[in-house]
Amino acid sequence: MNKSIRFLIIYIVFINVLLLSFYANADESDSQMDTASSSEKSLDDSPDILKLNSLNVVKLAKDNNISLKSALLNIDSAQQDVESAKGNYPWIFGADGGYTHTGTPIGNSLYQKRDTVGAGAQLSKTASAGTSVVLRGEGEWYKSGSSAVMITESAGRGSGTYAGATARLAVTQPLIRGFGNRVGLADLRAAKRSKTLAEKSSISVAGNVVKAVLDAYWELWYAAMRFEINKKSEITAEEQLNEISIRVSAGDAAMVDKLSFESNLASLKAAVLESQIEMRRQEVVLAQTVGIVQENPRIFPDINEPLPVTFSEMDLNELTQKALTESPSVHVVIAEMDLAKENEKIAGESLRQKLDIEAWLQASTLTNSDVQHIFSDFGNGNAYSGYIGLKYELPLDNRKKEAQKAKALLAVDSVNLKLNEEKNAVVADVLIAYENILAARDKLELAKETLVITTQEMDAQHERYLLGDAIYTEVRNAEERVRKAELDKVRAEVDLVKSQVSLENITGKLLKKYPLN
Question: Are strands 49-52 and 298-301 parallel, antiparallel or unpaired?
């Protein structure tokens, strides 16, 4: 009997034994398959699992991320500062009234007594240009007399009951300190600058949050893919162990041959367990980044989601210029610069010399008989008086003013240095992200080629093994190289996506791709 016939007989016997073993161990095989897919079912089919893709995980972060919520609150707070600054110059109404009793000595143990009831009201306003206006009206009723004799006209108006009214309009206009809207609207302009800074900061925070969420998501996606690849290898190893066990039972293989299969299966089970642990760890990282870690959720990524690799060939100089123009972090420092310049404009203003022009016009009436004269006498020109003049102040020590101006200029210089530093950081980040993308693309292409070659090698080793021309160790090594090539390919894909996300965040494109509004 030649070698070919002997091999054919062995092969036929092997197939029959395999079929008998299959039916005899159907329940055991079903149990093994259930165990093999239990983790996947528990993650993919359970209603308690959050099944997320890269788009809805960003939406989930919008509603739960603490840093993002805090940034949005800062915008609301800054808006309230703007509203407050708009109300810096309201009309103010005031009112007062009271009763007074006085006794004034006039000599020789004589006293003039007076009982007064008065009331007044006024409207006042300071305009943004520094103009101050006060309109006041007041009236009083009083009764006077002496303790011994009637007071003569030379001693006063005489005893009796009097009523009077006064109206006064006063205007003050600064000519140096506090003059004009440059000073008067400084708080409002600063509040608006602060709001812009808060908005730019929130955009920068949002971009960093989206980047962190996507990085965590794709790491979880890689962990899930790693688990799938390892699980597939474990299932294959179990099938191979079953086959060698049948051959050992048929006397076609030695018991020692079975040990290599068992060792391989044990190694792959450890790899599956390790990948499960890593996947759970990445779930926690993603939950923390999104802001839902306190709920202790189970998260399963969409492993069938196409990787959003959209990077196209772009000129590095063009990318750099776009980043310097659109980078959210650069916009934040520019907003800080605008605020510092705004503060510099009015530094030391309260310590400048002061020159105000003041004017007032007043009309007063008084009667002790007919009440109507209180109002009709306002038409009498003799009831009016007025004033116009200048008021000047000159601080004799300018050290505090000059120190405030110097400090404000230093703040502008400091922010300018910070802006240059941020631009340098952005350029460096662009270079790193760009090089990472190129390296990841090369690694991905190499991994794809390696996977094709190792798969062909594995198929060839399987054929040689069936023909009896190769030992199991050679098959096992070939299968391991395929598994590693698959893992390298997925790792390169994730690295490429993460590098692309980093570049999109630097250039301000990320929030356009994953809007949070």
Answer: parallel
